[in-house]
Every structure is written in C-alpha cells, then in structure tokens.
Amino acid sequence: MGLRQRLAVRALRFIQKRGARRVEVLGNTYEVTEDVMNPRYSITGRFLAENLDAGPGDEVLDMCTGSGILAVTAAKGGAEVTAVDILPDAVECPRRNAGLNGVGDRVDVLEGDLFDPLEKGRRFDLIILNPPYFDGEVEGGFDRAVFDPGKELARRFFTEAPDFLKTDGRVLMVYSSIARPEDVLAFAGEGRWRHEVVATKGNALERFTLYRFTRPPRRAKEGGRKVREGGKEGGRGGKKE
Asked: Whole-model pTM?
C-alpha cells in the first residue's frame, strides 16, 4: 500500500471512531455504526449522490450500499431501489435510514455478496457501485468498506453485472486516482464495457472520478443464426443481406 493510501485509510479509521453516529447529508438524515462508512465524512458517497441520474420509473440497484445514502437519494427521486451489502450493519443501517427519510416503501435491502442475493433474470435500469478500492487484507467489518484485495470485487462486478442490466441500462461507479483506476477500466474494457467520465472531484490526497459504463446491445438472432453487424449472417455459406 502506497503512502497516500495509508494516510487515507488512517484518516477514515479516525473518522469512523470519533465521528458522529447520526449525521445530515444533502438534507437527509443517516445513522451509522463504526463499521459503516459515515456519509458525512466520506467524499465518494456524497459525490455520487450529487451526480445521481435516477428518476421516476427507474429500477435501481445500489451495490455496496453502506449507509444507504445512494439508495435513499435514488428513492427520493422516484426510483424503486434494491440495495445490497455483505456486512450485516450495512444492511440494517440503510433499512433504518430509508425509513428515517420517508422512502422505506421504495427501498429493499438485501444481505449478500455482490449479485448473489438477487433473483436470476432480475434486471435494472441503473446499477450504482461505490466500491472499496484500497490495497490491503480484509480482517474486521469496516475493512470490507475499505479494501479490495487484488481488485477482485471490481473484477467480479464487471463480469457479473451484464446479467442484471437492461439492454439500455448504465452503471455509475466512482473510483480514486490513488488506487490504479486504469486497472479497473482495462478489465471492464475486456468485457466490452464502454465508459465516459461524468464528473471529477479531489482533495489533498486523491482525485475521484465518476464513470458511466454502458455495453453495446447483444447481437440479434435470426433463424437460429447470429446476425453480424453490417447485415451479414453468420454460419457457413453466409451471404450479404
């Protein structure tokens, strides 16, 4: 772990131990425990919430929900939200926070590892990912909100997400400049994900980038054979249309 990462992790641990357990962010109230990232002091959650493009009719998946700040923000915009986290405290907190902010009927919180708790065939208009991104080993509960050893969580996310995204759906993800975002973009690209930069924000230690990811539509099938781009049929003896 580099010096900047060590300093950032040290600052986060200090805030988690000493910070208020009930905070207000963007006009909403959140209660957290020591193991759940405090949305008042963590830049990434607020940054994503300020740039969230979820609205009425959207089906939204908030992955690694933590305090539930993104689930609450999306629900307040009229979306129907499913939130997922592997940490028990990060399941109880967003449930409570959705109720505190009057959107408990539009936020369903599930406990599990990434997409595991979701029904097969369930698809979303928007998937939000505010992932852990520092190097380091996961030992305690809060470590799950901070460390992604070998970027395995990010890699799994971009491998599995296509099965849960609608054809015209999108992914919003925030990532830090001190955590090798180029590695994540590279293996997302291997999965045919396209990305664009939505916004950036920085502090003395790191710069955060909000990315929007989309995937090209799956190729249509006709007569049991794939139709290639440019109007060509696949298979032997294929002819131009």
From this structure: 0.85
